[in-house]
Amino acid sequence: xISDKVFIIAEAGVNHNGDRKLAFDLVDAAxxxxxxxxxxxxxxxxxxxxxSAPKAAxxxxxxxxxxxxxxxxxxxxxxxxxxxxxxRHAHQRGIEFLSTAFDLQSLAFLExxxxxxxxVPSGEITNAPLLWAFAHTRKPLVVSTGMxxxxxxxxxxxxxxxxxxSDQPPQGMGEVWRNWSEQAAxxxxxxxxxxxxxxxxxxxxMEEVNLRAMDTLSSVFGLPVGYSxxxxxxxxxxxxxxxxATIIEKHFTLDRQLPGPxxxxxxxxxxxxxxxxxxxxVSLALGDGYKAPQPSEWQTxxxxxxxxxxxxxxxxxETFTLDNMTTxxxxxxxxxxxxxxxxxxxxxxxxxEGEML
Length: 357
Fold this sequence. Notes:
Elements: E1 7-13, H1 20-33, E2 37-42, H2 45-48, H3 57-62, H4 69-74, H5 80-92, E3 96-101, H6 104-111, E4 118-120, H7 128-136, E5 141-144, H8 150-165, H9 173-180, H10 183-187, E6 193-198, H11 213-221, E7 225-229, H12 235-242, E8 247-251, H13 269-286, H14 297-304, E9 307-310, E10 325-328, H15 339-342
Parallel strand pairs: 1-2, 1-8, 2-3, 4-5, 5-6, 6-7, 7-8
Antiparallel strand pairs: 9-10
């Protein structure tokens, strides 16, 4: 799932607006940007939201105020028959196809496509049966943590661990926690689960990004950590890369002026390409962390490091002193850090002024 480089997910989500051509165009834009994967969302609106479900504030601002969440979601469903052609098109363009399931039936359908891993959306981190089903596929999981507390994240990880180790769903949370109390149950997640720090507000104000939470997730759970971004710019994903995010997910659209709940918090294609390029450069610049001269530094090192030289002419047998010895760039010779070692010693030959010792 995740290699040494940052894995970049271009989140098309529901920005296809129910338009088949737009969905395919989003795949093309994601591939052209250099992202590793393009991701959509798979759900049945009637299974996802009740008639009475209110819309989030950002959804109300982006759509007709009187429209229900259910009506909005019905217009944004990705038809099942589009999935395989979209996947095939993505692979032809050299990019991975992903989709997030929001209900059990949608997850069962995605299983028929052979996706390499699943992303668990923030809203489903407390949806125990769906979370258990995600994990029971035995595929790697990327778990988004928007809106979640540390205790809710630990509960989700406990459920995931149970699903990996058990053939049948638990009889209750007591069984889940008994499993979680075993060290082996926690260790089983190490190569199977990554966490995404996320703020589930569209767009996310800068003061609520809280990138340091990535460090907390890493230290508390000991799992790879990435970042799912909902800010309106590309600065924060780049900053998250500098904090060693292993995964970056970012919404994108072909046009921010299109109707729909997520377009305004999405990047347009040229911005997505810029973000991907910047992330690759920052990732490259992070290096391996070991402090040593870089290959390009060796010639500079030889040119600018100072060596011991004679301040004036020195005769054989003369004692090296502060008056007759100094340091300067000579290109070779005894390094300047031996200055004190030479003081008080006798010259073994004659030196002319400026000659290296």
